[in-house]
Design goal:
With 128 residues, the chain is an all-beta fold. The chain is 0% helix and 51% strand. The protein has no helices and 12 strands. A hairpin with an 8-residue loop joins strand 7 and strand 8. The protein has a 4-stranded antiparallel β-sheet with strand order 6-7-8-9, with no helix packed on it.
Amino acid sequence: RARRRDGMIQSAFFDVSNNTWSKPQVTNLLNPNSAIDAIRFDGGRILLAYNDNANYRNPLSIAISDNGINFRKLRDIENEPGQQFFYPSLIRVRDGTFYLTYTWHYCSNIKCVHFDAQWLGLSPVSDK
């Protein structure tokens, strides 16, 4: 779970055994108070789709983290001047590849991007 504070994404984790959320911690990622989406995979790493800007919903980027607090930006998915990208939704499918959908071109279209770990510059993702 994440929220924005002062242009930065905050992260909190749910403890199933205690049925409670951790105290939010500020991450190292910018965000203009827009939607984000994350998935946990490959040994607990977190892949996150977000807008890497404190004021605008451009660019739309992908980052990775081992702990949910310190992220490393992998690449921009979209970075078209004058455009904004909204409501990312990220999934991983059985073959280990990813789909990212988001609104595009002034929210008039939904775009879907299909990619794998190699395209992100990561080693192949396992099912373990």
